[in-house]
Amino acid sequence: MSDIHSPGLSSTLLADVGASVLQAAIKPLRPGWVLHGPALTVAVPAGDNLAIHAALAIARPGEVLVIDAQGHTERAVMGGIMCAQAAACGLAGVVIDGAMRDAQELRAAALPVFARAVSPAGPHKRGGGSVGKAVSCGGVTIRKGDWIFADDDGVVAFEPARGEALVAAALAKGQAETQRMAAIARGELRPVWLDQALADNPIEMAQIR
């Protein structure tokens, strides 16, 4: 999937052409981060991180650690030490449906981290959960190897078998949007599709002109 590295690709374009969108609450801890790669999936009980340690022990370079932490935001399941280990393993980044901590430290580091919340409370290590099985993260079912793409607008996911077609469609849409921006700059302020769309989908408009 070589085009995944194209500078014009974004989560918005991928969402527009059919990628699954994780809940909007999962955001980067620092603006400007972009991550993409195949998912290494982890599920943990609320507030527990033993399964995440198990996943880090087998993680491969380029993978994105995708953690279903049950959406729990009152106890962080990862922080500075574990993210340093993740970076040393060569992971592309971390996406957590739950909380992180050591926010200032993580924002100063290079590893992209996306999470639902930040909390100073640390995790338990009582066990439970899974590594490598399907998880629900941000309301989306994600399987090991599914492709993750994340940026300032949020996180999307898609099956690798759909990857080439989705990325190609997203880049084509990006080119169309670039052309529309050029048209606006030329003063062409009425989209060519608007009249037909209004004819097909009537809107009640007051007489204001």
From TrEMBL:
Alphabetical list of InterPro entries matching this protein: RraA/RraA-like, RraA/RraA-like_sf
GO annotation, biological process: methylation
The keyword Lyase belongs to this UniProt entry's keyword annotation: yes
One Pfam family cited in the UniProt record for this chain: RraA-like
Cofactor: Mg(2+); a divalent metal cation
Binding site for Mg(2+): D102
Binding site residues for substrate: G79, G80, I81, M82, R101
Gene Ontology MF annotations: lyase activity; metal ion binding; methyltransferase activity
Keywords of the record: Lyase, Magnesium, Metal-binding, Methyltransferase, Transferase
The protein's name: Putative 4-hydroxy-4-methyl-2-oxoglutarate aldolase
Species of origin: Bordetella trematum
Organism lineage: Bacteria, Pseudomonadati, Pseudomonadota, Betaproteobacteria, Burkholderiales
Name of the coding gene: proA_4
